[in-house]
Automatic annotation (TrEMBL):
Complex 1 LYR protein domain boundaries: 7-63
Pfam entry (one): Complex1_LYR
Domain of life: Eukaryota
Name the record gives this protein: Mitochondrial ribosome and complex I assembly factor AltMIEF1
């Protein structure tokens, strides 16, 4: 099981915000609001499986440009 560190999570947040600022064909404000909302909601997670799932979901968005 992979447990991302606080630094890795903050770096993912930073990369998602930068990705959102470069979007052209979608609503930037909506995307950035969703990213902030998801991170705010998931900040209280303690279950390692849920933390890993949320982290991988963010990484997938960066790599593929969409969430499956």
């Amino acid at each position: 099981m992979f447990q991302p560190s606080r630094q890795q999570i903050l770096l993912l947040y930073k990369h998602l915000i930068r990705y959102g600022n470069h979007l052209k064909l979608t609503d930037k404000n909506y995307f950035l609001g969703r990213v902030r909302h998801e991170f705010r909601d998931n900040r209280a997670l303690t279950n390692p499986v849920e933390i890993e799932f949320s982290f991988k979901r963010g990484e997938t968005l960066l790599k593929k440009g969409r969430i499956l």
